[in-house]
Design brief:
This protein is of the alpha/beta class. It has 14 helices and 7 strands. β4, α9 and β5 form a beta-alpha-beta unit.
Length: 328
C-alpha cells in the first residue's frame, strides 16, 4: 500500500516539468525534492528516462519516428525546427525566386521549407539531408502534396562530400553547417555548382566569442545536440565565404526573432501533451516531448545569453561582370 501511494510523488507532473524546463528552473533540484518524499522508485525512474538519450547518442540517425512526430506537433507539418511558412517566404525574398530557377538546399529536414518555396515561387528544389528517417518521411509528405518532382529530397553524408552533380541558380542552408566540421569543403562544393551571379542564403548557429567554448553551459549543449556541433564565429563564417569567391551582401544577427519563434511554438506544449495523452502510445510520446523540451531549452538559453547566435548571411557568386546587386 505504502509503495503504491508514493509512486505518483516520484514523478514530476507534466505541467511542472514543462514549466521548470522552459522558465529555467534546475531540473535536477526538482527531481531531488520529489525524490526526498519517496525512496523505493528512485533507483528505477532515472534509468528509464536516460535510456532513450543513450540510444540517441549512439545511433547513426538521431531521428526516430516518435521524434519526427513530436517535431511536427510543435513546429508544424513538414517542419522539424523554428520557422514556419511565413518566415521561410520572408527569409527568402532577397533570393528573387522564379519558376525558371533551380535551388540547392543543405539541411532540408522534412522538406517543409522547400515545399513552401516551391508552392509560392514555383522554383525547382533539390534538398540534401543527412537523416534517412527525415528523407523517408519528407518524401512521403512531398508525394502527398504532389510536389515530389519539384521538391526532391536526397540523403547524403557531409563528411568527405565529393560534390553535387549539377549547377543551381540558388542555394539555401538552414542551420545546416554548424554540425559540419569541414565547412570550407562544403562551402567550396556549393560555390562550385552555383551559377555565376547565383545567390546563397544561410541561417547558421555561431558562437558569440571564443571564450564561449570553455563554458559549462556550452559543453552541456554540445553533449545534448543530435549531432556534434562545430560552430564558429560569424566573422569566420563570412571569411570562409569570401575565400571561396562569394561576395557577402547581408550579414546579420537574427537571434531575437529566432528565440521568439521558439517561444511561440513551445507555448502550446501543454495542448500537445493533452493530445498525446489520448494516444495508445501516449506515455512514450510524452517522454519524447519532454526530451525535445529539454533539447530546445538548452539551445534557447544559449541564444538568450548571447553565447550562441543565429546568423543570417546572403552572398552571391561573382559573375565576372560589373558588381551586381549594387542597389542593396
Amino acid at each position: 500500500m505504502a509503495t503504491k501511494q508514493k509512486k505518483p510523488d516520484a514523478k514530476v507532473p507534466l505541467k511542472l516539468r514543462l514549466k521548470a524546463w522552459w522558465e529555467g528552473y534546475d531540473q535536477d533540484e526538482i527531481k531531488k525534492r520529489i525524490a526526498s518524499r519517496t525512496m523505493a522508485p528512485q533507483e528505477e525512474e532515472p534509468a528509464k528516462e536516460e535510456a532513450p538519450k543513450q540510444m540517441d547518442a549512439e545511433s547513426i540517425d538521431p531521428w526516430d519516428a516518435a521524434t519526427v512526430d513530436i517535431a511536427q506537433y510543435i513546429w508544424g507539418k513538414g517542419f522539424c525546427g523554428p520557422g514556419g511558412p511565413e518566415y521561410i517566404v520572408s527569409l527568402s525574398k532577397l533570393l528573387a525566386l522564379s519558376p525558371e530557377m533551380s535551388m540547392l538546399q543543405i539541411g532540408a529536414g522534412l522538406g517543409g521549407p522547400s515545399r513552401v518555396l516551391v508552392d509560392r515561387f514555383g522554383v525547382w528544389i533539390t534538398g540534401f539531408e543527412e537523416s534517412e528517417m527525415l528523407v523517408d518521411k519528407g518524401r512521403k509528405l512531398a508525394k502527398m502534396a504532389g510536389l515530389e518532382k519539384k521538391a526532391q529530397l536526397e540523403q547524403y553524408s557531409p563528411e568527405g562530400f565529393e560534390g553535387f552533380d549539377r549547377k543551381y541558380d540558388r542555394a539555401l542552408a538552414k542551420e545546416a553547417l554548424f554540425t559540419i566540421e569541414d565547412k570550407a569543403n562544403m562551402i567550396s562544393k556549393i560555390e562550385e555548382k552555383l551559377k555565376p551571379g547565383g545567390l546563397f542564403l544561410m541561417t547558421e548557429y555561431v558562437i558569440g566569442s571564443d571564450a564561449v567554448l570553455g563554458k559549462d553551459k556550452y559543453k552541456e549543449w554540445v553533449v545534448g545536440e543530435r549531432r556534434h556541433p562545430y560552430p564558429v564565429l560569424s566573422d569566420e563564417l563570412v571569411d570562409l565565404l569570401k575565400k571561396n569567391h562569394l561576395q557577402v551582401r547581408v550579414s546579420e544577427d537574427i537571434s531575437l526573432q529566432y528565440v521568439e519563434m521558439i517561444n511561440q511554438a513551445w507555448a502550446g506544449a501543454d495542448e500537445v501533451a493533452a493530445k498525446l495523452a489520448k494516444r495508445e502510445d501516449g506515455t512514450m510520446m510524452i517522454q519524447t516531448l519532454m526530451r525535445e523540451a529539454e533539447f530546445w531549452t538548452r539551445r534557447k538559453k544559449l541564444l538568450e545569453s548571447g553565447d550562441l547566435k543565429l546568423w543570417r548571411i546572403v552572398a552571391n557568386k561573382k559573375s565576372g561582370g560589373p558588381s551586381m546587386m549594387s542597389d542593396w
